[in-house]
Design goal:
The protein is an alpha/beta fold. The protein folds into two domains: about 190 residues, P-loop containing nucleotide triphosphate hydrolases (Rossmann fold), CATH 3.40.50.300; about 120 residues. Helix content is about 50%, strand content about 10%. Strands 2-5-6-1-7 form a five-stranded parallel beta sheet, sandwiched between helices. Helix 11 packs antiparallel against helix 15. The longest helix has 24 residues. The chain starts with 19 loop residues before the first helix and ends with a helix.
Length: about 375
């Protein structure tokens, strides 16, 4: 599969599919000269919210497609596109635009790894940024990606900037779960909801970004991704579709589980360097169990992503009751979530998860 390091980051991505309605909301505000100073870009993980934030930033920093134009001088614009060879596009892509600040998780100097949250020190960079005169004499843009990751002190520090922003300052907050944000932050932002992408959009993006994925594989991965191109790329990078086929094949065995095959799967995703595949397997099991439970509650299973999926779900559902399957779902999710925090043996986690499923299948 194509390595993720070869793909453009959101700040480098020029095209955006599936969010025309969200773009139109922003453009209508811009063209009507009714720009709110803070926008909350909300929606599921991996659907392009950060890409839209940087797309808006390029547009605004170029004066609405016209370099050097201020808000009240800018012409009426029909879309947010700014040419890739535009000076602002190049500066944004390189991270070198003086009027753009991105607030995100920083690296912990003691561990050399990204922190698990955005800290108050990360947000405090805003103070000096907002105090400076803009280099182009027009707009400045601050992107918080992802706002959900701010700790309490960081959120309070951001709130101060939102309450008294300098003129022609635009805040763009990317959020997967806006309900986790302080109500006072949400109240100072205009909400811009982005929906999950269509399967066709995900498949098209995946084919463009991972050229070695076939059209049939792209369509199947798009089904599994639940409208998230980020999840689709993760599936492609980890061999997620093949993992899902293995998972469904094992689940179809019900109580007659092939324990040697389970050991082989556990060994494959549990070895050193396979952490991403292990995490993906946990996500896929969680997705499958959720789909089985919700499908039975609705009276109809979703159509198969891989052959035999629906039949396996129907057979397993009949072998136990709702309360038991809900308990299994919770227990398996807990096993995978504790694997990293408690430094559990990943192969054994996989084995225990399937043994839990087998026990439920026995009724």
């Amino acid at each position: 599969m194509t390595g993720s390091e070869e793909r453009p980051t959101p700040r480098q991505t020029m095209a955006l599919l599936g969010h025309d309605a969200a773009e139109r909301v922003f453009l209508d505000a811009w063209n009507a000269r009714r720009m709110h100073h803070a926008w909350l870009l909300a929606g599921p993980h991996g659907i392009g919210k950060a890409t839209l934030a940087f797309r808006i930033a390029r547009f605004v920093l170029s004066g609405g497609g016209e370099a050097g134009a201020g808000l009240f001088d800018a012409p009426i614009s029909d879309d947010l596109a700014v040419p890739e060879d535009h000076p602002v596009s190049r500066q944004v892509a390189s991270g070198g635009h003086p009027d753009l600040l991105t607030v995100e998780r920083s690296v912990n100097p003691k561990t050399g790894k990204l922190r698990g949250e955005i800290t108050v020190d990360d947000v405090r960079r805003l103070s000096s940024f907002l105090a400076l005169t803009t280099a182009a004499g027009a707009w400045r843009v601050a992107i918080v990606d992802v706002a959900d990751e701010m700790n309490r002190n960081a959120a309070n520090a951001l709130l101060k900037g939102l309450e008294e922003p300098p003129t022609q300052t635009l805040f763009l907050l990317v959020s997967h779960r806006p309900g986790r944000l302080l109500p006072t932050i949400r109240s100072r932002c205009r909400l811009l909801n982005l929906s999950a992408l269509s399967e066709d959009s995900v498949a098209a993006l995946l084919s463009n970004l991972a050229a070695d994925v076939s059209a049939d594989e792209a369509a199947a991965i798009a089904r599994l991704s639940d409208g998230s191109i980020g999840q689709a790329l993760a599936l492609a990078d980890t061999g997620g579709l093949e993992l899902y086929r293995e998972l469904v094949g094992l689940l179809a065995q019900g109580a007659g589980l092939d324990i040697r095959a389970v050991h082989a799967l556990g060994g494959k995703v549990g070895r050193a360097g396979a952490e991403a595949s292990f995490d993906m397997l946990g996500q896929l099991i969680d997705r499958w169990l959720a789909g089985m439970i919700l499908g039975r509650a609705r009276g109809a299973m979703a159509s198969d992503v891989v052959a035999g999926e629906g039949a396996a779900a129907t057979e397993l559902w009949a072998r136990s009751n709702l309360a038991n399957w809900l308990e299994v779902w919770e227990k398996v999710a807990r096993l995978f979530s504790q694997a990293s925090s408690a430094n559990l043996d990943r192969k054994q986690v996989v084995i225990n998860a399937f043994l839990t499923l087998q026990a439920a299948a026995r009724g």
